[in-house]
Amino acid sequence: MLLIRNKELRNAIKIAVPFVIIPSVTILGALAFDEKKHIIVSLAVAVFSLLLFAAGFEKKSTGTRRMVIVAVMTALCFAGRFIPFLKPIAALTIITALYLGGEAGFLVGALSAVLSNFYFGQGPWTAFQMLAWGLIGLFAGIFSEKLLKSRVLLLLYGAATGIAYSFIMDIWTVLWYNQGFSLKLYLAALASAVPYTASYAVSNVLFLYLLAKPFGEKLERIKTKYGV
Amino acid sequence: MRSFSEYNPIAVTVWFFSVTGIAMFSSYPLLMVMSLVGGAVFFTVRNGFSRGREHIFFWVLFLILALANPLISHNGKTVLFVMNHNPVTLEAALYGLNSAAMIVGVLYWFRSFTQIMTSEKLLYVTGALSPKLSLILSMALRFVPLFSRQSAKINSAQKAMGLYKDDNIIDDIKGKSRVFSILVTWALENGIITADSMEARGFGTHRRTQLRRFGFRAADIALLAASLALLGVTAAAVGSGSLDFMFYPSVSTAVPDKLGKAGLIAYGALIMLPIIIETEVSLRWRYLRSGI
């Protein structure tokens, strides 16, 4: 990403990769393999996009301070996953993204998934979790202006991403179980995951409501004080 | 002479992903059985019989997964019985059993993988892929115990100031959120100081070095080469369709040709690799000890 000096072109690529290239890989993969192998395509897409992001991040010169702040937020997310019933990871990821940008949000979401899974069980789903939480952060960064202006919108975003996270992870559950996608199994998985979906949505709204303002003030202060 | 977990993490990771990758992307029942048995044996050999709860969890999950499919999916020709006006078929039951074997097998493998890949080894592997991400991961790992120590300090300071009571829930939550807020401010400030101190010591001017060095010895290269070769044979057999297995509409399988048989043997050998290594090590130990 460092090689492209033109800012508009860089932004265009940033949008093109997740929205154009990766979906086309998915469709091509679905056409090339028979439908029973959706799992390969989906896992390949998840790993591919994570690697792409890592490569982009690696090439860019990021300030040391910024990197350490990302590490701090990741550690807080990691610690937060030990709270029973409530899951503050997505909320903290969104808050980071709002104040430090989408890339930092993606990193915090994706890295806290890897780290915390060392305690909660690593598995092939780690790639999906990384991508899901990462994207929640990335989109929060993209829409940060609007989300920062209106608290209602922010809480709505939290609730929506909480539900979306559960829906995405259930797609994975079905693919893993069945290799191909089956709507019936998906609906059954969604139904059995209702308490989790509710807990994700509720904890996102709750933590965003409680933490967005104080955390924002702290991050804002660090930003103006040290120019992160 | 090293035990399997002491091999170069990259070689171990490649081996793990070969085993689990084949298990996940194939649906040939014999492969699933091999992966499940191998995973369970490997986990038990590494831990002895101390992890009873995990075994129980895995096998309960196995039952649930195996039973879920025939209750939800009604494809298949052979109807066993009819429940709530829905046919329960033999094919769906077998399919559920196969999927359950795959999932529980992979879960066993990943549990062992998490045990073998300590955070230090993870950092070595991610460091090879992306040094920057590896740095963030290692710092975050270090921050977790640091933060818990600091929050204990803040807690006692608050108590000494008489600001922290836990007589009732509301006061408790208020006090805890105050401690958390102070902790976050401190963590961010401390992070900046850490970053400045890192830069002052020349961070980013050179390649980052690792705490522990994992060289590539001959045995590591042999393990890596053997894993990749066996993976290649198995993947060729799975990919070419010699190991296809159809559950619907009725159970049917192609009799495995030469490539299919080679694939099965290769996968068996792949699973046996660490067991071979461990046996070799323990035999040699016994031999050396008998000489004393």
Summed up, what is this model?
Chain A is an all-alpha fold. In chain A, 84% of the residues lie in helices and 0% in strands. Chain A has a single domain (7-226), classed as Arp2/3 complex 21 kDa subunit ARPC3.
Describe the protein's architecture and organization.
The complex is a heterodimer of chains A (228) and B (292). Chain A is an all-alpha fold and 228 residues long. Chain A contains 10 helices and no strands. Chain A has helices at 7-32, 38-59, 64-80, 89-100, 102-120, 125-142, 144-149, 151-178, 183-192, 194-226. Chain A is globular, with a radius of gyration of 18 Å. By secondary structure, chain B is mostly helical. Chain B folds into 2 domains: 4-121 and 212-290, no CATH class; 124-200, no CATH class. Chain B has helices at 9-25, 29-47, 52-72, 90-116, 119-129, 131-160, 169-200, 218-239, 258-290; strands at 79-83, 86-89, 245-246, 252-253. In chain B, the strands form 2 sheets. Chain B has a two-stranded antiparallel ribbon with strand order 1-2. Chain B has a two-stranded antiparallel sheet with strand order 3-4. The model of chain B has no long low-confidence stretch (mean pLDDT 86).
Entry keywords:
heterodimer, A: 228 residues, 10 helices, 0% strand, B: 292 residues, two-stranded antiparallel sheet
Q: Report the radius of gyration of chain B as a whole number of Å.
A: 26 Å
Task: Estimate nothing, just give the exact number of structural domains of chain B.
Answer: 2
Determine the fraction of residues in helical runs of chain B and give it as a percent range. Answer: over 70%
Mean pLDDT of chain A: 82
N-to-C order of helices and strands of chain B: HHHEEHHHHHEEH
Counted by DSSP, the helix tally of chain A is 10
Question: How much strand content do the residues of chain A show?
Answer: under 5%
Subunit arrangement of the protein:
heterodimer
